[in-house]
Design goal:
The chain is α/β, with parallel strands linked by helices. It contains 8 helices and 7 strands. Strands 3-2-1-4-5-6-7 form a 7-stranded parallel sheet, with helices on both faces. Strand 6 (150-153), helix 6 and strand 7 form a beta-alpha-beta unit. Helix 3 (74-95) packs across helix 4 and helix 4 (107-118) runs parallel beside helix 5 (136-147).
């Protein structure tokens, strides 16, 4: 019988990390992908990136509304998490995924992990054990780790950090960064092609990305 694998995505950046995994699940005949789009994907101010998911050919099981004011202040952020827990719970009750995959440290995977764990749906957390700069994301990453049942870390150091939080070693796997799969399996344009496309000067330059 096919296993239903739920995956949560809330931002364009995180979706870029998850794309190789989504493709692998979608192409596996023994798995059914249940994709939950939420957060910044739904906001035009952030590029309305849900369209990118659809262009890639993925079917979205549910669109989870968490509110558009989450970034404005702490009160709205807390409300957004609460709304996310409610909306994810409704969707999980309908879909009953066999496993839910969440990535990173944002409010969207945090709300989804709360809902899934409470409903006895196993949670797999990607990129646990990393250390942030002390903001709320740093706290939520570790909270998601404690809510999750399986852990896929991006470094051996992060794996050991997750185990120090009390997670059993057999549940924690150092798999590296998912984005490497994208890089290794994507035909990247040459320097000359990029220069022509973006009218770059024919000299050395530095690209800075944040």
């Amino acid at each position: 019988m096919s296993r239903k694998i739920g995956v949560v995505t809330g931002t364009r950046a995180e979706y870029g990390y998850l794309r190789p995994l989504l493709t692998a699940i979608d192409n596996n005949p023994s798995l059914i992908l249940q994709l939950y789009a939420t957060g910044m994907h739904l906001l035009k101010d952030y590029g309305d990136s849900i369209k990118e998911i659809k262009r890639d050919g993925f079917s979205i099981s549910h669109v989870i509304e968490m509110g558009s004011k989450a970034m404005s202040n702490e009160y709205e952020l807390a409300k957004s998490i609460g709304k996310g827990v409610v909306e994810f719970s409704k969707s999980f009750n309908e879909d009953r995924p066999d496993l839910l995959v969440v990535f990173g440290d944002r409010t969207e995977p945090f709300a989804a992990a709360i809902a899934a764990t409470t409903m006895n749906i196993p949670v797999a957390h990607i990129a646990g054990g990393d250390v942030g700069m002390g903001d709320i994301d740093h706290v939520m990453r570790h909270a998601i780790t404690k809510l999750a049942h399986l852990h896929f870390t991006m470094s051996d150091q992060s794996r050991h950090r997750v185990m120090k939080m009390g997670e059993e070693p057999w549940r924690v796997f150092n798999v590296g960064a998912l984005t490497l799969d994208t890089i290794l399996n994507t035909e990247l344009p040459s320097r000359d092609a990029l220069a022509r496309k973006h009218s770059l000067p024919n000299k050395q330059f530095i690209l800075i990305s944040h």
